[in-house]
TrEMBL record:
<dbReference type="GO" id="GO:0016829">
    <property type="term" value="F:lyase activity"/>
</dbReference>
<feature type="active site" description="Proton acceptor">
    <location>
        <position position="86"/>
    </location>
</feature>
<dbReference type="Pfam" id="PF04476">
    <property type="entry name" value="4HFCP_synth"/>
</dbReference>
<comment type="function">
    <text>Catalyzes the formation of 4-(hydroxymethyl)-2-furancarboxaldehyde phosphate (4-HFC-P) from two molecules of glyceraldehyde-3-P (GA-3-P).</text>
</comment>
<keyword id="KW-0456">Lyase</keyword>
<keyword id="KW-0704">Schiff base</keyword>
<dbReference type="InterPro" id="IPR007565">
    <property type="entry name" value="4HFCP_synth"/>
</dbReference>
<feature type="active site" description="Schiff-base intermediate with substrate">
    <location>
        <position position="28"/>
    </location>
</feature>
<protein>
    <recommendedName>
        <fullName>(5-formylfuran-3-yl)methyl phosphate synthase</fullName>
        <ecNumber>4.2.3.153</ecNumber>
    </recommendedName>
</protein>
Length: 234
């Protein structure tokens, strides 16, 4: 069954979301880039505020894959108590092999990591298994450039289906995101990714993901997820 993830950038947004019960609340600062990080202290407070009412994830920030800072950043983010730490990877995951292997000890210590690759950067899914070998828990497809061209403008349903199947074959949780709209939900749910991720569609201005969350938009996404899941599970 597919879950839904909602990205937030501050504690006020969490209060707005919790009533609608997303399965995962994801912490990131969109002003700092597609995987912009929130301050560690904010993430710590956010995790405490949520109090295990849903799962949580957090981006570590936009770092080049050869940055020596990645290991430390993952360690620090995991120490906030967040369930999953999200790390951006290049489209050709093979290029990140050294970075992935260096993170393996963190996986062995129980840190749950999710690798993020970008649909608008011509991703090569054939290296997905390397993420599994590094002990990651999941892989997520997102878009690097946030504009009118969402996930389905870059990859076909058949390519996305292939991605979800490959992830499943190496026991990785799979997530799909990238300026998803409410209309994308019935198209993507049949692929049975583990979750669909949203930010833009939850905001008062869907074209500005830095704008505040709109409670009505949040409710509409929640209802669309529920109704479409009911249809596909019949
Ligand atoms: O992790 C998911 C992303 O925050 C989705 O954001 P977006 O809907 O603005 O592309």
């Amino acid at each position: 069954m597919s879950c839904w993830l909602a990205s937030v950038r501050n504690l006020e947004e969490i209060s707005c979301l919790l009533a609608e019960g997303p399965d995962i609340i994801d912490f990131k600062e969109p002003k700092e880039g597609v995987l912009g990080a929130l301050p560690l202290e904010t993430v710590r407070e956010a995790v405490a505020l949520i109090g295990r009412r849903c799962q949580t994830s957090a981006a570590i920030g936009d770092f080049p894959v050869d940055s020596p800072q990645i290991y430390q950043r993952v360690l620090e983010m995991a120490a906030t108590g967040v369930d999953y730490v999200k790390i951006g990877l290049p489209s050709n995951i093979q290029q990140a092999a050294a970075c992935l292997l260096s993170l393996r000890p963190l996986a062995d210590q129980g840190v749950s990591m999710v690798g993020v690759i970008f649909a608008d950067k011509r991703p090569d899914f054939s290296w997905t298994y390397l993420i599994g070998q590094a002990g990651f828990k999941g892989i997520m497809l997102d878009t690097a450039i946030k504009d009118d061209f969402g996930l389905l403008s870059h990859l076909s349903l058949s390519e996305l289906n292939n991605f979800v199947k490959l992830a499943r074959s190496v026991r990785l949780i799979s997530g799909l995101a990238g300026s998803l709209s409410i209309q994308d939900i019935p198209k993507l749910l049949p692929l049975r990714a583990d979750y669909l991720g949203f930010r833009s569609a939850l905001c008062v201005a869907a074209r500005n993901r830095c704008s505040r969350l709109d409670p009505k938009a949040v409710l509409l996404i929640k209802q669309a997820m529920r109704e479409n899941l009911r249809i596909f599970e019949i």
